[in-house]
Amino acid sequence: MLYLAEVQKKTGFIGSGKPEFKLLACQRSEHSWSAVAGDESLTAPDDASYNAGALVMVEVSGNRQVQRHYEAGRTLTSILQNFSNLSKKSKTQEEEIEQWKQSLTFQSQELNRRELELETRQEQVEQAEADLEQLDSQRQELEQLRQTLEQQQEDLKRKNQDLEGAWAHLNGETRLLEEQRTEVSTTAGLDSEQVANLQGALNRLTEAVMPVEALRAPLTHATDGLNYHQGLLGDYRQSLENQRQGLEQRQQEIDQQASELQQRWIDWRQSEAVLTAKREDLKLKQQTAKLQQDQLQALSTTLQSQGNLHQKIYDLLNTTDKVRLSKKVDVASLEALELDQLQTLVSNLEKDLGKMSRFVSDQEDELTLEQQALDEINARIEQANEFDRLQLGTELAEEEDRYQMLNETLVGQRRNLIEREEVLAQHQAVLRRRQGIAAEETPVSAVDLEPLLNTIDSQRQQTTDTIQAVETEIKQNQESISQLKQTIAAGETALATQRAEVEAFESGLHQQHRDLAGLLGKLAVCEELLNPAQESGNGLRQSLDDLASAVTKLQEVNDYQLQAIAELRQTVVSVGAPQLAAS
Asked: Which residues form a coiled coil (predicted)?
């Protein structure tokens, strides 16, 4: 079982007591930890040389024995980084889910609207098809009516021919009658047989007169039917005109949507340009962060060189009794210790310094590896495409967070290491003097190196202040980079959503174009079918008008014929009267 523990030990005047591990938290799974209830402690093994208050990771066996222990700094850094990354990913996923919900809601509304439009258009198409079928049926009826009228025209023509024959016969009879009247004028009158023949001829002429009323009834019926069908054709034409106006209005709406689509593409390209500028700004800030890291590394090297110079001067002062040690060490207490106790204390300090130096060296190596990893990811980002940059950007953010936390931890450890080196040097100086290793001092006046030490301390403090200022700038720059990355990530998501919406709008507009083209095609077909029907109706109207004129003329001819027959009948009667009286 893995535990997070705090090192606790009692410190005395001479040395340190036996350390203990106070258990703070227990690992339940890879990403799950729980606090340890109560105040449970385990005795640390002999190789545990941690300072009091240090945090360590402890592996404990089933019988509560410590199997393994190590510094908790790196593990805690990794845990905090994982927690931070999980929190960021969770927040990013929540934002993406919310954007997806909004996009799906918009798409659902758009689909519902388009479905209603398609249903309306389907109903219009079905109505147009029904009207087309009805129009075709009416066209067939008109064709049958046309055939009926043509047949009636044929009958009328045949009857006209019969009438003309009867009229020719009547003219012949009339001429004969005139001849007879001329002959009779010299005689007393017609005999009874001649009168009977004339009466029979007149009767036959009267029977040969065509009944015009028999033609008026079907003519009136045909005219009424034609008027009805032409009224329907007018209604259909008006309906087609209304549909054409509606389609023209729809075309205007589609043109407006096309303008809107063009503007939305312009807005998307502007958003893309803004996002590209932010990416360039991010690259610039990352390059600035790299330069700041290089500056911080150079300052750390300078601080280390100043510390080495400080140590060398202390080594020079170890050869004289005129040594003024730092206030960090109580020289009087060291002078009062037994020599064996002082040697033990110096040995313990050397061991602690060795462990601390190795640990800091390992941290420095790890920091170098982290910097190399950052450089490698930046190089991959410069060569990657847009999709891979998103993934590499997340990976780069994680590596930068890890580098920042490790560097911040390492700064304090460097300072602590320098202070321990200084304290050890001062202890070693006192020990050497007490062991008589220091050289005998010459009677000449000793060189006072304390001002030089003070100058070096002042320079070290200035370097430390500069390091802190650079670290503050790095932290601010890293925060700015982190915010800019979040802004870019949100912008990329919003840009992708905007592009998907514009493409969906464009696809819908293309579909509307296709639907409108189909409706216009059907409208053209209906007009092509309606125009011949209208022309056919106009031809029938002209034929019926001609037939009505012929019937009127025939009526006049019949009236004239009947009047002539009546006059002839009266003449025959008057001519035949003397003969009838004589007999």
From this structure: 83-166, 237-264, 360-416
